[in-house]
Amino acid sequence: MHFSCPQKNLLNSISIVQKSVSSKTTLTILKGIYLEAKMGQLKLVGTDLEIGIENIIEADVRKEGSIVIDARLFSEIIRKLPDSNVEISIDENSQILIKCEHTEINILSQSASEFPELPVVEEEQTYLIPQEIFRNMIRQTVFATSQDESRPILTGVLVEIEESILNMVALDGYRLALRRGSINAVDNYKVVIPAKTLNEISRIMNMDEDEPIKVSLTENHGLFTIGNTKLISRLLEGEFINYNQILPKEYKSRVKINTKNLLNSIERASLLGREGKSNLVKFTIKDDKMIITSNSELGKVYEEIPIQLEGNDLEIAFNSKYFIEALKVIEDEEIFITLTTGVSPGIIRPVDNDNYVYLVLPVRLH
């Protein structure tokens, strides 16, 4: 194998595939990046057996071949080279020689034959989704996935395609986030994608805004293609909770409130709650104002915000973290908060559209 390419292009490609390389694995081969030089292109692949990422760049290939290089070492070497052409070759002892301007570095390699092949995903169920919409949908749901590995299905996001509607749903037992979007599709499909996969896709999508992301789904795997990058991930097995049954259909109090004002007030009120390890904020809703209070051994916070109230006065308390995380991803200026009783879930929706619904369970007040 013998090829050369610009340092910047190579470093960018390494940084994309390195996201799927596991540092915790006991298998040495999985700590490496697979390189294959062929027909004017260099293919780089990383995998942890759950997620695999492949990226292709143009290269001047003088001799075709493939090799595996330790990802961390390779990344650090290329990062510290000058912004010039990098030449990489392999000698008869399978040692890798990296040349750039006046620098020469020799490192050991591993055999490419030991590197696991990425699963082949048949591109039958394929959907094109604008990158900006998909990234927003991920941002507004993925934070509500569960961290509890004992219920693996909840560590992912339900992706549900119903004709021309795309629903993404995440829940962790304390809150639920639902984001709706439009998609060009005529069929129905339902899969659960791991949160880790969606976070990696979101990072890769920052690279190139213009073209849509191509999503291909099978029963066990998802293939996500963005330009010259492919990400293949295992999907989560099992039955996702019927989220429609959880969402309340009626309410007794509806509050219209400025999103930013509420976020700022809860963040200030949560400062004391966080110090006291309770994270608790109490809402007292009556007339034309919402009073937010927080108490701990360190002191008290009192906040008052103007609102428009429709329905009953109410006292209710929430974990401030669950409210703050939702308010941070809502881009609308005003929201509705609908409530039934002091022990029933609260629902947050934007005032001007119905593409986002967030449910959060209250904390019982003593």
UniProtKB/TrEMBL annotation:
Residues 129-240 form the DNA polymerase III beta sliding clamp central domain. Residues 1-119 form the DNA polymerase III beta sliding clamp N-terminal domain. The keyword Transferase applies. The keyword Nucleotide-binding does not apply. Its main location: cytoplasm. Residues 245-364 form the DNA polymerase III beta sliding clamp C-terminal domain. One of its GO terms (molecular function) is DNA-directed DNA polymerase activity. Belongs to the beta sliding clamp family. This is Beta sliding clamp.
